[in-house]
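re: ur question from earlier - yeah i can do the single chain one, its not a big deal. heres the input i used so u can compare w yours
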Amino acid sequence: MNATSQAHRLHMAVGLTGVLMLAACASVPPAPTASLQAAQRAISTAERAESGRYAPEELSEARTHLASADTAVKEQRMIMAERFADESRVEAELASAKTADVKAKAVNDEMTRSNGTLIDEMQRNSGDKP
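and the output i got, formated as tokens:
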């Protein structure tokens, strides 16, 4: 085998190694940082809204999905990490929405009772009784 042939094979091997290294780097997508941050923000918002009291299952599920997303990032399974982070955000948003619904219903119930009391008082003062 002559020197030119060996040099050609060496160049081919180096080139192939470079291509394989680039392919290996390209096969792992970047961490889904934006999705993870959105999930964390949604959980924080739900916590501030007292979702632990009014929607504990949903908030717990959001936390579980976020923990799974963090684990997936550590295992370099970025597609799964993004899916878990998105599920976490959705669960946290659901917890916030359920909490807002429960609180709004409580306010509505209180207003209905107050209105009933006011109507009774007005009727008593006017002398009209149903």
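Residues 49 and 127 are 45 Å apart (CA to CA). not sure if urs matches, ping me
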